[in-house]
Amino acid sequence: MIESIPDKSFERLSVRDTDIFVEGHGETTLLMVHGWPDTHRLWDGLIDQLKADYRCARFTLPGFGVSDPRRQRTLGEVVGVLEAVIDAVSPDRPVTLVLHDWGCFYGYQYYMKNPRRVSRIVGFDVGDVDSKEMKLPLSMILFTLSYQLWLAGAWVIGGRTGDAMTRLFARAIGVRADLCLVHSGMNYGYYLKYRCALFGKSQGDVPFDPACPMLFLYGHRKPTMFHSNAFVERLNRAPSSKAVGFDAGHWLMLEQPTEVAGEIRDWMRAFSARP
Fold first, then answer.
1. Suppose 136 and one of 47, 140, 206, 223 were both cysteines; which one would form an S-S bond, judging by CB atoms 3.0 to 4.6 Å apart?
2. Which CATH architecture does the domain made up of 3-136+206-273 adopt?
3. SS3 for 252?
């Protein structure tokens, strides 16, 4: 069921127990999908910068809301929610996906399954993270393994202890999200990733290989990287794609919102001008 609730400042839809918030005007719909440990509020500043030109839609990933039931969500389930959201906000036209962190993982998998429903992709900080071209130094590999296993362990433990473990790490890396809204229920993606790896099983994901135009924005100042140099080079060789690095961390849309919005706006306009 899709329910539209009128509001003076935004349109609110509800589909599959998921609230969707739509702001702005324009023929192009941007669907923004956050990652760990955020909610739809991650995009507040960027939407303020873009809503004069674009219709901006966003939602909170299932299980990330502080009152959401705590249970494992599979890749297929989350991609199914994303599919329902896109059909609700733009049933007749493809959307531009704007993705960050785990939102990249789920959004890229949606695109690989439904390429005709996506016209463009803006990816933040996570690219070909599972490709064979990823070649990280040992220090980055150890950091990535340690924090992801910590969060997977927090998921298994759950309760107050699991929540405290999750918030401890979030505080340590300086996340901008409200720590009162950060909880171990958000960590199911990490748990599923390592459970599948331990038992040699696949989540059903496929390698991300964008054929549509893509803008990739990433930060240089962070303890590990989530894309290969080859990924950046490949995008910059493509005629309608682009990769841009910022002097920022993982949450570059919060650190440099005006500059990030400018890159998106300029790229979108340049793309629209091309035949």
1. 140
2. 3-Layer(aba) Sandwich (3.40)
3. helix
**Count of beta carbons in the 10 Å neighbourhood of residue 51:** 18
pLDDT tens for each residue of 25-71:
889 999 999 999 999 999 999 999 999 999 999 999 999 999 999 99
Rounded Cα distance between 94 and 29, Å, is 8
For the stretch 214-235, pLDDT in tens is: 999 999 999 999 999 999 999 9
pTM: 0.94
**Number of other CB atoms surrounding residue 149 within 10 Å:** 14
| Residues 235 and 242 sit within 8 Å (Cβ to Cβ) | yes
Per DSSP bridges, beta strands 95-100 and 118-124 are parallel
CB-based contact 255:248 (threshold 8 Å): yes
Token pair of 35, please?
């990652």
> What amino acid occupies position 72?
Q
For the chain, what are the domain ranges?
A: 3-136+206-273
- Cα–Cα distance measured from residue 163 to residue 123, given in angstroms and rounded to the nearest whole number: 28
